[in-house]
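Field log, afternoon session.

UNIT: design team B
ACTIVITY: writing a sequence onto a fixed backbone
BACKBONE:
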């Protein structure tokens, strides 16, 4: 594993080195501590001039990178680059609830729960939880093609992956009441994926059928297998984006330990060029100070060549608390902070950002 991680770290470092030569804004303007925000960019009422104005407002506060979903990619690239800002195109990955073509043509690609139900027809928690199985080769090829096409768009600095995991086998603690659940163990209806392809490959590798395990949630090999299937999918996507000279980033669960336990995600072993853990302290009923320790845990797990940008959740952070969160992220060793999301950034928030990152 050490040799593999050394190789991936070197691959990421060499890719980013070449991108830095071509585009210094990849790191968010090259500052020692960068500021970013996620942007829902699909508004049909905002034109190029309007986005330039919005991005100029962010840039004036010291924000030098945006992670943009929806809308006209070329327009957002022009608007962001006019302000010297990096733009990562934010794309849903294994959750394909909006992908009607795949749903209609390949229903067999969707993950299956331990109850034997497809997430396409019986999505867990909410209607948009329709997840592809990461073990399937055609799924990996499809997603690599999708992300490669995004990477090929002129001016896009990086592809930013979201929902690159399994469905939550356990929700963050603060959401249990929302769904009237007590998730003190892994429940069958939220435990994925048990499709034929997963079962066949796991049995081929271990001699075990996941459906016949005495205690599937406790089986270490079965748990690690599912982490690895997501990792292999990210590796396929990374090859496609790096082949086009673009970087790869991802929004991930807060720490390597939490990510593995809640959503089968081992992001510290992925060939990412930047990583954005969602350190949404309120979701876990933690104080803001928790951000420092969670950040440090992620930084320690990553190759030294992979910067960690701490994601924070604005609805839980009035302006003074945002300043505290940024200080906690810096204390933990983050290379920057990213705020979810642009619409929640008041003038008072931006004044805090300007002061905190200076």
């Amino acid at each position: 594993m050490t040799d593999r991680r050394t190789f991936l770290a070197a691959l990421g470092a060499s890719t980013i080195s070449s991108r830095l030569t071509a585009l210094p804004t990849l790191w968010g303007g090259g500052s020692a501590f960068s500021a970013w925000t996620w942007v829902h960019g699909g508004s049909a009422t905002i034109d190029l001039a309007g986005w330039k104005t919005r991005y100029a407002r962010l840039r004036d506060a010291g924000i030098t990178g945006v992670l943009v979903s929806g809308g006209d990619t070329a327009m957002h690239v022009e608007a962001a680059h006019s302000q010297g800002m990096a733009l990562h195109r934010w794309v849903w990955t294994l959750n394909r609830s909006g992908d009607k073509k795949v749903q209609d043509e390949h229903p067999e690609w969707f993950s299956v729960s331990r109850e034997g139900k497809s997430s396409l027809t019986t999505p867990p928690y909410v209607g948009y939880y329709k997840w592809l199985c990461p073990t399937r080769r055609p799924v990996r090829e499809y997603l690599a093609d999708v992300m490669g096409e995004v990477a090929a768009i002129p001016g896009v600095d990086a592809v930013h992956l979201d929902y690159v995991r399994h469905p939550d086998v356990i929700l963050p603690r603060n959401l249990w009441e929302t769904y009237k659940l007590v998730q003190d163990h892994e429940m069958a209806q939220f435990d994925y994926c048990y499709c034929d392809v997963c079962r066949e490959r796991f049995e081929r590798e271990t001699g075990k059928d996941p459906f016949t395990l005495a205690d599937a949630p406790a089986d270490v090999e079965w748990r690690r297998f599912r982490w690895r299937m997501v990792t292999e999918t990210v590796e396929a996507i990374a090859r496609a984006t790096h082949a086009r000279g673009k970087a790869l980033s991802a929004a991930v669960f807060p720490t390597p330990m939490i990510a593995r336990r809640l959503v089968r995600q081992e992001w510290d072993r992925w060939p990412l060029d930047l990583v954005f853990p969602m350190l949404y302290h309120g979701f876990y009923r933690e104080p803001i100070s928790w951000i420092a320790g969670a950040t440090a845990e992620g930084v320690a797990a990553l190759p030294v060549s992979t910067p960690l940008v701490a994601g924070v959740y604005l609805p839980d952070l009035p302006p003074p608390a945002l300043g505290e969160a940024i200080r906690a992220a810096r204390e933990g060793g983050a290379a920057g902070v990213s705020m979810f999301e642009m619409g929640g950034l008041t003038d008072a928030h931006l004044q805090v950002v300007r002061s905190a990152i200076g």
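LOG NOTE: The domain at 2-89+136-172+225-356 is CATH 3.20.20.80 (TIM Barrel).
NEXT ACTIVITY: expression trials, pending approval
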